[in-house]
Amino acid sequence: MATQAVRPMRKPDERHLARQRWARAGWVYGTMLALAVFFIGPFYVAFLGSLKDNPLEWPFRYSFPQTQPKNWAAAWRLGQLGAGNPWTGGFAPGAEVPFQISYFVEEGQEPEPPTVTVPTRRAGAGLGAIFDEVQAAPYAQVSEVQEVSRRPAVVGGQPGQIVTYAFTIRYPRGDATASLPTVPRLPLDIEAPRGQRYYAATLDPNRLERRGRVASWDSITPGFFGYVFRNYVRVFNEARDPNTGASFFLRWTANSFFVSLAVVLTTLLFASLGGYALARMYLPGKNYLFAFIVFTMTVPGQATFISNYLVLRDLGLLGSLWGMIVWSAVGAGAVFIMKQFFESIPREIEEAALIDGATPVTTFFRIILPMATPALGALTILTFQGMWNEFFKAAVVLSGQQASYTLPLGLSFFRSAYGVAGDWGLMLASAFLSMIPIIILFVVFQRYFVEGVSTSALKG
Amino acid sequence: MLRSQRIEALYALLFLAPFLIHLGIFFVFAFVRTVGFSFTDATLIGQSSRFVGFANFVELFREPRFLAALTHSISFMLVVTTLQTFLALALAAVLNQRLRGITFFRTVYYIPSVLSSAAVTVIAIWFFQKTGFLNTFIGYIGSLSPVLLTFGVLFVLAQAVQVGLERWRGLPVPWLDPALATISLVVALALTWGLVGLGVVRPLEARPPEFTWLTNPDRFLGVPIPLWSIVILNTFTTIPTLMLIFLAGLQDIPKSLYEAASIDGATPLQQFFSVTVPMLRPVTFLVITLSLIGTLQMFDQVALMGDAAPLDSIIVLAYYVYNNVFSGEGKVGLASAAALILAGLTFAIVLLQRALGISEKAH
Fold this sequence. Notes:
The structure holds 2 protein chains of 2 kinds.
Chain A: H1 2-6, H2 14-51, H3 69-83, E1 96-106, E2 115-117, E3 141-142, E4 146-155, E5 158-170, E6 188-191, E7 196-201, E8 207-209, E9 214-217, H4 223-228, H5 230-238, H6 248-280, H7 286-296, H8 305-314, H9 321-328, H10 332-344, H11 348-355, H12 360-371, H13 373-389, H14 392-397, H15 407-419, H16 424-444, H17 446-459
Helix pairs in contact in A: 2-16, 5-16, 6-9, 6-10, 6-13, 10-13, 11-12, 15-16
Chain B: H1 3-38, H2 55-60, H3 64-95, H4 102-114, H5 117-127, H6 133-168, H7 178-198, E1 219-220, E2 223-224, H8 225-251, H9 255-263, H10 268-279, H11 281-296, H12 300-305, H13 311-314, H14 317-325, H15 332-362
Antiparallel strand pairs in B: 1-2
Helix pairs in contact in B: 1-15, 3-8, 3-11, 4-8, 6-7, 8-11, 11-15, 14-15
């Protein structure tokens, strides 16, 4: 080429190379940030969805009433005023709740005060509809609606004015002899005459209908959680056992913990015993046995569950958490991990103990197990996570017994119970709640998760 | 056998006893029983059953739902394994750097893999709704396409101009020189922002989404659209695990190989294909096997979808077996035969891997 003949190619100088290195690092970090958004982003938007009144709204909003600090403060204060409970709110005897709402009224129209009603509204769809909640309507007294202020404004290019109205909702104590209930929620509907559009309120409404004429609240004394994490509170409050009235979700969480911890204990004991025997002890045909164990890991659970279902049925363990524990008591994978670990520790220590005349049982429990703490730690984490997330076995053993569901099966139950009504807020909230223990475990013990995968898989 | 050896063997059996008893009841006995059931017309509620030979297997291949499950399982396995392997390898290659804070990112990427399939599937069903986030996002990108296109063209132009200038001055810069690309990025961003501000380039108006994922009766490449959503979901949640396995493999490749290659003048891309890929072959084998087996046995996502999608468009072998046992009278015989076919397919994959693995070692 002509240019090359005139200007011979230079070697890039040191400054140029340094610049390239820095820029490359920048691009790598940028890529990694983008990938982080890819892996975490879906969970973030789903979490936003779980806070919304309508998670399927279109267009999708990233900022909505539940994310605005103004509403957090208002919800806190109103909860305090309603029942002295800033967290979950309510409506107690003696409460006095002042409230304000502003409308935009176009020029040339005379503003009129809106109608305020405390409706009787059942909580949610699905399971919640079974129970009769104490309603606020019979106890609440709405004061006269008064105009507070008018100021001219231009909204959406239209000249007009913003009119603010105020009223107070009271819960009279009545005579001291009657015992009045504390109501969990104080729902409210405010309907404005035609032509007036909702502009602002002490607390933003849960729904706006008919072009901003009708604003409605599930509770105007919600408290912080009751407003921001409304769907999360509903997960606990609305899904209850029709017979006992106990919260399903709490029960499922307890069940999940019970099964996971029990299986962790049995797995730790049986897998370390078995793994040690396979790694260290004399047993004719040991290698064939080990090959067989590895083989069992590839056989799908669907090829064995029918008989296991029948065995558990004969033992009377169907629909019981014990059935799940017995079925999962020790897995081939756990024995495999422990065998690999015991093969990696030096032999001399146990040999010394054996020469001293200790039996294998004493050696194992006094000397071997204490040395195996790191492997046992990893096994604990992996087993706990596996059982916490186990769906197939739960679907086989626990099917139909809602009180003994574990969380994954419970989520599946919610999906069929609330999916019909499209109550996505509650479903998303329950999904996020069920993740909390695993996320905590992951944050604290992330090394075990990451190493567990790469080492155990590679050695296989 | 020495007496001490005999005692040790006894102790070994004692240690292994809980595990072996469990394995005996819940695996060996169970598997033998499944084989037995598959030749009978047993039902879950029926008391008696009789031997029917291979009738169950013959019936399976006459049943449209089983055939659908079989095709779905196999196509799901092939599609997801291909996607997962390539994406996980690419991701691992990006992450295999000695940079500060890289472990943090590794941890973050792993999160989708540790969460329960139940929770993730519930979130995914929301994601795939008509006005769910996926359609919203696609619509958003679509409406922004004029802006993104402008940005892309400007970026390429800026980079081409800069590289051309440097080469003309006699510096051997590569087309993707990172330092120049940073400048191109800033320039392209500024120009795009300016053009949008001036109103020369305008985003299109966003329209409400029309596309349905879970209730769509159409097919793409012969696979029903609802199953594609499970493909996307499963790929997303499994990539991190496979990526970590690849990463462990990458870190085992001696640095000296790369140094030798670069002294011989190999470009990073050449190094990737002539050093990384062959050295990673055993790990790739493992990843593919794990992925094939895992996807073939996929159950949770289909079961959790439930009536969110029509069953015949998402059914796979594992769910077919479960569904036959726990619906209606419980066709245990038929389900067992289907389960054996599933197990047989898995076994064939393992055998194939073994056979190829041996030739790999000889090579």
